């Protein structure tokens, strides 16, 4: 990693302090991400504030929410111009005189969403970043903040799940869905995974094999759920990132007192929810948004414990990051195009390469 | 009321005990209620069990759930032959030797659903009935068990509502809806009431006036909600008995952390629920079923308090029963037809008239 650090240009300003020149991917207007994003050179402030830290970003992925934010369709709209990206990991390069919780060399991830991580260097408040285990693999550190915690919290905060219990999810091969499968396996929870029907039996089989290699107990299409598996399992938890009729099938499959947690709406259709299970089976529906969980200061201790648990699973080979394709900041146009078209792997920037 | 009691035929059986002959409305098969229901004469058992009571039913309404149960489309299916009706009030005529909680002359309502109240006389377990204030008006006693408590619980158990808070409901002129309006007025809670557009402006005005006379703060159609009132109020509670797109409008209107409680599905369409408010506004959806609440023995004390509060509102003129049309058991065919076609008033049997 140390070789990366040489890339930041340093120059001496008129007051004798060295100015750090950094590069960042910014947008000034909402629009097509591949066109709206520009690579910009800029100078960091001359002085690092007493409670601030200098972070060098080392791996910062492109997530669907980042794309939506640039498109202007995400509910949170940043002030313009904005730096793209909200996930990633970096290394502390320098600290202000009053910083106590971090030291030079620590590895950190954003403490909250919307930090703008697609840049080589940034001065940030000590409170804006969260220390993580530096010994984890780079790809895991770069993708530790959004999807694995979303899966982890949804499997923890809504229903008490014991070993042997069953959960059901749609969009099961999404990044969160794959994290759900792996956490279920690690915890001894059975997962029923609904995926869209692939164009060829071969593609279907390949997807099924991949999901099963991660730990999926059952990988089926909506059609199979209706025709072959109706009433065959009584999950107490359903995870929905699709909406529309797919949500209806999950709701129908839920056991008495079951809970459906919605964290996405890939079909862009409202959830269709049958009345009967709400009234007579007392099922409940709620949503989950990782950003809101992070914003709640009461969760700090739990956050440390969650990263420790995820870290342990990562180190013992029970939890794998998604497949990543590293891109330099200069490759932003290609990376942003690929992020929207090629769902077989995740694009991520290596801002200091 | 005492004049009613003379109607039960009593005869002396071979052991010298008097056998009580009663009349009841029964069905042996699911089907069209007006055809499936028959009036039957039958003898009560010769001996009243030690822990049983003899109840004379005095006023027993026809509710939509009763109709659905006879049609066979209700999730709870009684063993056949079944006596219709699950609400109403009666008077204790005699008690078994070990009955402690009730005495002759007490007025009671069913303690649970599905008791079969459309009959003149019944021997029931002491635990199957629940003592109420005999001094309440007959029409209030006959309709005390289902709709006012449904409204009461939905306004109590899901969200903490303070004076001045706002709730929103669809199907606002349903029996429960009208109870909601009156309880809101009594508690100082503002109610926004969505009703279907009537065929003429006159009919619309008449409905609005009726709802306002009960205490409705605002009576509007879905169209008005969309065009004139979007974002104008931020209710923390939405009550849904319609489903379909109407549920979507309620969900969109809900404030952050708002709750939508579903207690009916009059449109026979699944609820349409937008993804955004679930994730980004953290709204929640659940269902309410009065029968389940009654089944929970932990609620007995709360049930007494609820009836006391409702009784106080009834006596002080703050809560009115729906308009009732009294029918003798012999008029069952007409009553059951009217119950399905004439929604301006509720049919109820006076089994001992």
Automatic annotation (TrEMBL), chains A, B:
<comment type="similarity">
    <text>Belongs to the zinc-containing alcohol dehydrogenase family. Quinone oxidoreductase subfamily.</text>
</comment>
<keyword id="KW-0444">Lipid biosynthesis</keyword>
<keyword id="KW-0521">NADP</keyword>
<dbReference type="InterPro" id="IPR013149">
    <property type="entry name" value="ADH-like_C"/>
</dbReference>
<dbReference type="InterPro" id="IPR020843">
    <property type="entry name" value="ER"/>
</dbReference>
<keyword id="KW-0275">Fatty acid biosynthesis</keyword>
<dbReference type="InterPro" id="IPR036291">
    <property type="entry name" value="NAD(P)-bd_dom_sf"/>
</dbReference>
<dbReference type="Pfam" id="PF08240">
    <property type="entry name" value="ADH_N"/>
</dbReference>
<dbReference type="Pfam" id="PF00107">
    <property type="entry name" value="ADH_zinc_N"/>
</dbReference>
<keyword id="KW-0496">Mitochondrion</keyword>
<dbReference type="GO" id="GO:0141148">
    <property type="term" value="F:enoyl-[acyl-carrier-protein] reductase (NADPH) activity"/>
</dbReference>
<keyword id="KW-0809">Transit peptide</keyword>
<dbReference type="InterPro" id="IPR013154">
    <property type="entry name" value="ADH-like_N"/>
</dbReference>
<dbReference type="GO" id="GO:0005739">
    <property type="term" value="C:mitochondrion"/>
</dbReference>
<dbReference type="InterPro" id="IPR011032">
    <property type="entry name" value="GroES-like_sf"/>
</dbReference>
<keyword id="KW-0443">Lipid metabolism</keyword>
<dbReference type="GO" id="GO:0006633">
    <property type="term" value="P:fatty acid biosynthetic process"/>
</dbReference>
<feature type="domain" description="Enoyl reductase (ER)">
    <location>
        <begin position="31"/>
        <end position="349"/>
    </location>
</feature>
<keyword id="KW-0276">Fatty acid metabolism</keyword>
<dbReference type="InterPro" id="IPR051034">
    <property type="entry name" value="Mito_Enoyl-ACP_Reductase"/>
</dbReference>
<protein>
    <recommendedName>
        <fullName>Enoyl-[acyl-carrier-protein] reductase, mitochondrial</fullName>
        <ecNumber>1.3.1.104</ecNumber>
    </recommendedName>
</protein>
<keyword id="KW-0560">Oxidoreductase</keyword>
